[in-house]
């Protein structure tokens, strides 16, 4: 957790790069408790550059928007903050708001490089007004 009192912007970025390269996983949550939704960015480094959609262990579906259906227990995403039901808005800055699940899988398979950043929207539960 980055304490805004202890970190300036430059040292926070340096710390995030350190965590990403040391652990291979970086997730950032910017939450507005009085807002309706939370934007989340999760960056992982593929252990093998040729890992495709099926290898990553993240299952998506359209319900009604593209969202996370399941995270397999042995998935690289199991230790991130991604939850079932999170809406996928982008992957590596590619807009996913109009993609179907099979198009998303193809997009993941064709991504260059080893870093993958998934941008998500976590909707606040309307009945409880919480994110959990």
General description of the model:
This protein is α+β, with helices and mostly antiparallel strands. Helix content is 21%, strand content 32%. It contains three helices and seven strands, in the order αββαββββαβ. It has helices at 9-23, 53-56, 101-109, and strands at residues 25-30, 37-45, 58-62, 66-71, 87-91, 94-95, 115-123.
Q: Describe the largest sheet.
A: 5 strands, antiparallel
Strand content bin: 25-35%
Write out the strand line-up for the largest beta sheet, numbering strands in chain order. 1-2-7-5-6
Which series of helices and strands comes N to C?
A: HEEHEEEEHE
**Quick one: overall form?**
globular
| Helix content range | 10-25%
Q: Please count the beta strands (DSSP E, at least 2 residues each).
A: 7
Rounded Rg: 15 Å
Ends distance: 19 Å
Average pLDDT confidence is 85
Give the count of helical stretches.
Answer: 3
**pLDDT under 50 segments (min length 5)?**
none
Structural class: alpha+beta
Q: What is the topology?
A:
Elements: H1 9-23, E1 25-30, E2 37-45, H2 53-56, E3 58-62, E4 66-71, E5 87-91, E6 94-95, H3 101-109, E7 115-123
Antiparallel strand pairs: 1-2, 2-7, 3-4, 5-6, 5-7
What would the keywords be for this entry?
about 20% helix; about 130 residues; alpha+beta; two-stranded antiparallel ribbon; about 30% strand; five-stranded antiparallel sheet
């Amino acid at each position: 957790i980055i304490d805004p009192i202890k970190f300036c912007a430059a040292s926070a970025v340096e710390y995030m790069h350190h965590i990403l390269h040391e652990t291979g996983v970086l997730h950032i949550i910017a939450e507005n408790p009085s807002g309706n939704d939370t934007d989340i960015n999760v960056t992982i480094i593929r252990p093998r550059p040729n890992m495709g959609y099926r290898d990553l262990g993240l299952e998506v579906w359209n319900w009604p928007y593209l969202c996370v259906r399941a995270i397999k227990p042995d998935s690289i995403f199991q230790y991130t903050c991604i939850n079932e039901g999170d809406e996928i808005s982008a992957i590596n800055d590619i807009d996913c708001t109009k993609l179907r699940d099979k198009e998303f899988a193809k997009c993941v398979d064709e991504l260059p490089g080893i870093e993958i950043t998934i941008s998500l929207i976590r909707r606040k539960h309307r009945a409880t007004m919480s994110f959990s």
